[in-house]
Sequence to fold (173 residues):
Amino acid sequence: MVPPVAVSPLIKTARWSALLLGVFYGKQRFDYLKPIAEEDRRVEEAEKKVREEQQRIKQLAEANSESILK
Amino acid sequence: MAQAVQKLVTKVPSLLGAAVTYSKPRLATFWYYARVELVPPSPAEIPKAIEGASAIIKSFQSGRLGQITVKDAVRNGLVATEVLMWFYIGECIGKGGIIGYDV
Fold:
């Protein structure tokens, strides 16, 4: 087998510091995005309820409307 | 369906054994190289890393850039890309998932 190569210290430091920075960045971004996503979900729920109400009203109106097409 | 599950369950120990036998030498090779190449820098190596970084910056300033061979430039580019990929792996670890943020 080829003997393992001696990696330059610059590359080693760069790799592992990039890993640490990435972990911090990922954690930070996750914490930033989490409340925004919850807010979006809440807003979506409220709007969905409003939409379903309106659909129900429309359905009832259609069922009750008189037309000669029955 | 139940029979297939039973047959699978009886085969699991032998499958595990086969997997271990397959992976042991490969793991050994991996450790052989990783113990030298992938270890984090010891505290003594960090000043050398800073020296190396300042040497690169000085070479940029002194205009030696135009004298690098394409082969060297491509190799350095690949190394830089690998370092960048470690950042993305760190981001995956930090956000707790591989694809996307699990918000």
The mean pLDDT of chain B is 88. Residues 4 and 85 of chain B are 42 Å apart (CA to CA). DSSP finds three helices and no strands in chain B. Chain B touches chain A at residues 29, 32-33, 35-37, 39-41, 45-46, 48-49, 52-53, 56, 79, 82-84, 86-96, 101-103 (CB under 8 Å).
